[in-house]
Write a structure and sequence with these properties.
By secondary structure, this protein is an all-alpha fold. The chain is built from eight helices and no strands.
Length: about 180
Amino acid sequence: MRGETGTDTGPVEGQGLASALMAHRVQLIRFLVAHGAGDAAEDLFQELWMRVTQRPTGPVGNPLGYLYRAANNLMVDRYRAERQARARDQAWTEARGTGEVVPEPTAEAQLIAREDLRRFDRALDALGSRASQVFRRYRLDGVPQRQIAAELEVSLSTVESDLRRAYAALLAARRQSDDA
């Protein structure tokens, strides 16, 4: 079945959501940008990839429609998170302005946070130096994916693949932490 844009919107034998996601990557990123993602569109696309590939689904009659819905839900989640962060920042600012003391994390909370950080470092290091470096340059240093690809002399899809692997490893480490 062909949609109004001339792209395939119906089910294709042997084509899962992941392949539909990659086939319509540019369109989905444009959709995210148009709905307010701005510079975070690439990050949100990576998150969409994680959501689609991590959750089992049955057959989807309209994969592109499903992906647009999932992208829209991602934007709604992002809006809610930003709104909550603003409210939290406002409350913190008001608390600081009234002389209230914001409590320091407990020693136990600090210990747990340090252990989580070590676990995440080990998970990234286990991926190999390139994937670890790609993740750290992109997520911690804020370097664009294209620039990382040029610096490492690899393709953009290799950088994206390394990021997907890193996100999956961190998600597995987080789940391990939550189960412990």
